[in-house]
Every structure is written in C-alpha cells, then in structure tokens.
Amino acid sequence: MGREWLRTPEEWGVEPVPPDRRRLRLADLGILWFSLGVGLLVLFTGALLVLLFGLSLFEVLVVSVAGSVIGSLMLAAAGNLEARHGVPTMVSLRPVLGRKASWAPSALNAFQLLGWASFELMVMGLGLGLVSGPVLGGATAYVWIGVLAVWVAILALGGPLVVVRIWLERVAVWLVLANTAYLTYVVVTDPVFAPSFFTGTLIARFGAPLHFTETTILSGDRTWEKPRGAEWPSTPEGEAYQAEHVVRFYTMLFSHPAVEAITWWDFADLHSWKGAPAGFVRKDMSPKPAYDELKRLIKGKWWTNTALETGADGTAGFRGLLGDYKVTVMLGGKKTADEAFTLKKGEANRWSVTINNAELATRPLRNYGSSATGTSQSGVGSFSLVR
Description:
Blueprint: H1 26-37, H2 40-51, H3 57-85, H4 89-92, H5 94-97, H6 103-132, H7 140-158, H8 160-189, H9 193-204, E1 210-215, H10 236-254, E2 259-264, H11 289-301, E3 308-309, E4 315-321, E5 323-331, E6 334-343, E7 350-354, E8 368-369, E9 378-386
Parallel strand pairs: 1-2, 7-9
Antiparallel strand pairs: 3-8, 4-9, 5-6
C-alpha cells in the first residue's frame, strides 16, 4: 500500500458527493459507531449514573438502553437526510436557515468538536498515564496527550476511509473488544473497582491528599425535596440500604492510599438537616445497622490487635494498620512494660521499649507485643526491647 493512504482525502465542499464515491458500507458504519459507543468517556458517564444518582445495575441498564435507542433514532433521522442528498449535516441546514444563518450552527459545531476532541485526548492521556505510571514524572500525561494528538492528526489526513477500513476494522475494533471484555471481568469480580477508580485514582494523580466531606447516605426516603418539618422516618428497608452502602463506601475509600479523611455529616437523626434520616443512630439514639457495620470494620477488620514474639536480640517487626498503638510487654504472664507509639505513613517507624525489671538482667529478651497484617492503608514498623 506504501504511502497511498497518507494522501489528502477527496473533498466536495458544499456540493453533493457523487453516488459512485459514497463508499462506506453498512458494516463500515456499524464498526464506526460501535467503536464510538465503547470508550473511556462512555464508561465514565455510566459510572456517574451510580456515583451521582445511586442507580442500581438494572436501572443503569434501562437508562443505557433507552438512551441508546433514542439517540440512535435521532442520529438516524438526521443521517437519512444527508445520505439521500449526499451532503454533510451542516450543509443540510442551508435550506432551513439560509446560507448566512447556517454559519452559526456550523461555527458552534466546530467549537463543540474542538472541545470534545480536546477532552477525549485529555482522558486518553490520563488513562495511558495510569497504565504506564509516572515514567516522565509530572509530564507523563502531557507527553501521552501530545503523542495521541499527532496520531489523530495522521488519521485525519487519511480521511474517513482510512480511519474506518484500515484503522478501525483491522486494529482498533479488536482492541476495543478485548478491553471491554477485560474491564467487564474486573468490574464483575471487583464491585468497588469502578467507583474507586473514577473518584480516587483520577484525582489522586495530582498529588494532593483526598478528604471526603459532607457524606450522607439516607436510611429512609432518598429525596431532598421534602419541606422542613415534614415526617421523614427511618425505615427497615432504608436502614438495610444505608448499611450496605456505608460498607461499600468506607471500604472503597479506606482501600485507596490517597484518602486521608472521611467526614460523615450527621451522626444522629436528631436535629439533622430537615429532620432527614441521615445519621448512624436514630432520634432516640439507638444504633442503626450502619453503625454496627462501621464499628465492625473500624474496631474489628481494620483494628490491629494481635501478638508476636521477639527474637533473641529483643527486636520484632510487623506490618500493621496506620494509627496509634499501645505495646504491652509480657514475661511469664506478667506485664513488664507499656509503651505508646504512632505508626505513620512514609516514615521509618522504629521505636524502643525500655524494661526496668531486675529479673530480666540474666534472661533472654523473648517477650510479646502487638502486630498486624495490613491493607493499602498500612505501614511497616519495628520496635526493640531495651533493659
């Protein structure tokens, strides 16, 4: 094929394209629109249906199918007009708006396409930066954006036939199918992947710690359109919903290394905004299931409380959850020392525990202290026993 595909594509301007030059087949159009329908922006929008509106999987599927049908019908209605007359969409507006007036939507469309292309390049650049890692430091994403911009310009020079029949049909559509299958597998096997990726990973790349504030998950009617003073009770069904999503929300954020703080807005339903069932406890201060579930996570699953034996040199190392610790040294069933320390992210985390006990003068330093296994919100530390 040589460099034939780099030649400038045929152009007819405002004149109809001759019938014998309309070369895109049904399969070509299908591949083109299929590839456009599966992309990072589409996946991002789908995730927002859950993150912003709290829709269930079934509701997301209904919205997606209905939106696809409506959008396809609108696109087909406009496309049918251009296909019959062989002119671009903007040219087809001339009989309706007139020659001069049609320049307005044409200019707006060009501006919209420029913004859309810029946003697409930004999202793809950020995505490739996450895959490659910061190989070029803070400039990684910008370099990827530049590379992608050059590639898109080359495809534009080739024209629609090159884009569809060479790039999409031979290469890109198979990459899209493979990526879709992989992402589907990840999302199905790891329910917190999508919200964690879109709310944490994309923002954390800017290097700032993440603080989530004004967090509220209602345990009753999930609407804010109630007048002040109206009855807004907490219901058993709502409390089950709240407990489930509290566990998912806190687990997602706790597992992300960039998250440093989570603020729940109303601890109790009593005196909450508009009297909403927004707290962990009811108006009579009795705990809801969400309270019990969060306590189980914080004071149980995410709480380091175990023991280990030091070596002959009196040292012990462990991997534990970040936070404040209390070490109790035991010998022969008796407590010989108590020390407190804080396990901090990114620090050496080495401490000494001094033991003042005459009985230890001639005995090996084999004692017990606290330890833990960890998650991404954990650290490594060690302490030594000193006579």
